[in-house]
């Protein structure tokens, strides 16, 4: 069974990592499925899978849903022209490079592009279409003249939402034929934590952007009493706009001794186990890979009570969900209680076992493959 996995030009962030992990799991444990990869740009993902002897094609195409820009009319016209030109060029190229008659199923990794849906319709190939975000979070701009939901429903695709929160939003928008398959992470065999620091080590891993919530988290930290501040160390690890990082450093310069910024590295996941508490203050996570990664390493997680975080942090042993509509001082008192009670020191094994049972990449891919069985007539392992 040959499955064409499609991703756009992005090779960093949650969607790209999910794409990589999904295909790795297929390669390792589903020998009757042969992945074929189509990317819009030659990037780190292309190099990675080429090294693993996977069949990789790089043919440019563009998104039909994009992050909104101003002035809206100008950008919509410019990006629509780019989308249409790349779409025309894509079909001329793909038919000369890729033998689509050998493809049994198409799996598009992201809701922002529709090239997989067009291929599915043109060649009568079943299509799985992943939806990985709450569209309103990024003020997604539809470049097409028709409604984006009507456009998506016009193809005979099966949509997959990575959380109940995402499913509910897109179903309410009108998307049909959609089901829930929680995203998954690579589980690890890292050794348990060794010697602890004298400080309570707090990790905020992820993009340094306003939507990720660093600012509103630091507002809460600012309201902690000095005796608690003296006991904590916060590390922000991730990439982002220099302007936003400078803004945070300036606004919270009175906390300069307790927080630092570090660029993202491939060793970041290994470093999680060195911390006590993991933070994901994103305004609305579609899933929250980093939340699962924290828990899998036994960390107590501080998350937001919106998006998919409440679907992962389901009890007080796993973490604390912040209601950011409350005043920072009120939330600081709740955080202080958690720190004083040292709740992060207990239930590490419970948190790790819970994550491995519910959010492993193995479980995720098994459910995706079960979906493949439903929509095709091909044999599977």
TrEMBL record:
Pfam families referenced in this protein's UniProt entry, alphabetically: Glyco_transf_4, Glycos_transf_1
Domain of life: Bacteria
CDD domains in the cross-refs: GT4_PimA-like
Domain Glycosyl transferase family residues, every copy: 192-348
Signal sequence, start to end: none
Domain (Glycosyltransferase subfamily 4-like N-terminal) ranges: 45-187
Protein name per Swiss-Prot or TrEMBL: Glycosyltransferase family 4 protein
């Amino acid at each position: 069974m040959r499955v064409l996995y499609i991703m756009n030009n992005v090779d960093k962030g949650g969607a790209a990592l999910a794409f990589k992990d999904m295909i790795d799991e297929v390669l390792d444990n589903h020998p009757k499925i042969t992945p074929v990869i189509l990317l819009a740009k030659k990037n780190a993902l292309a190099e990675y899978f080429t090294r693993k002897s996977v069949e990789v094609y790089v043919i440019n195409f563009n998104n039909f849903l994009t992050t909104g820009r101003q002035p809206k009319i100008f950008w919509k016209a410019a990006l629509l022209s780019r989308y249409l030109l790349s779409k025309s060029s894509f079909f001329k190229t793909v038919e000369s490079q890729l033998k689509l008659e050998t493809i049994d199923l198409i799996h598009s990794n992201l809701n922002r592009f529709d090239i997989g849906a067009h291929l599915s319709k043109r060649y009568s190939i079943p299509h799985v279409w992943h939806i990985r975000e709450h569209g309103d979070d990024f003020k997604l701009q539809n470049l097409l003249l028709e409604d984006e939901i009507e456009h998506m429903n016009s193809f005979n695709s099966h949509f997959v939402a990575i959380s109940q929160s995402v499913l509910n939003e897109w179903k309410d928008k009108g998307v049909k034929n959609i089901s829930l398959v929680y995203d998954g992470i690579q589980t690890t065999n890292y050794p348990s934590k060794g010697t602890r620091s004298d400080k309570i080590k707090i990790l905020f891993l992820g993009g340094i952007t306003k939507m990720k919530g660093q600012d509103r988290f630091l507002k809460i930290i600012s309201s902690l009493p000095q005796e608690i501040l003296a006991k904590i160390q916060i590390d922000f690890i991730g990439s982002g706009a220099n302007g936003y990082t400078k803004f945070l450093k300036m606004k919270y310069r009175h906390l300069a001794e307790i927080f630092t910024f570090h660029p993202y590295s491939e060793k970041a996941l290994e470093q999680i186990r060195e911390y006590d508490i993991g933070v994901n203050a994103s305004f609305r996570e579609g899933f929250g890979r980093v939340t699962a990664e924290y828990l899998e390493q036994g960390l107590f997680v501080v998350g937001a009570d919106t998006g998919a975080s409440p679907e992962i942090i389901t009890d007080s042993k796993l973490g604390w969900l912040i209601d950011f509509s409350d005043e920072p001082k009120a939330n600081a008192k709740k955080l202080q209680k958690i720190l004083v009670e040292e709740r992060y020191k207990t239930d590490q094994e419970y948190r790790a076992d819970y994550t491995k049972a519910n959010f492993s990449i193995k479980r995720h891919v098994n459910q995706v493959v079960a979906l493949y069985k439903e929509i095709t007539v091909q044999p599977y392992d």
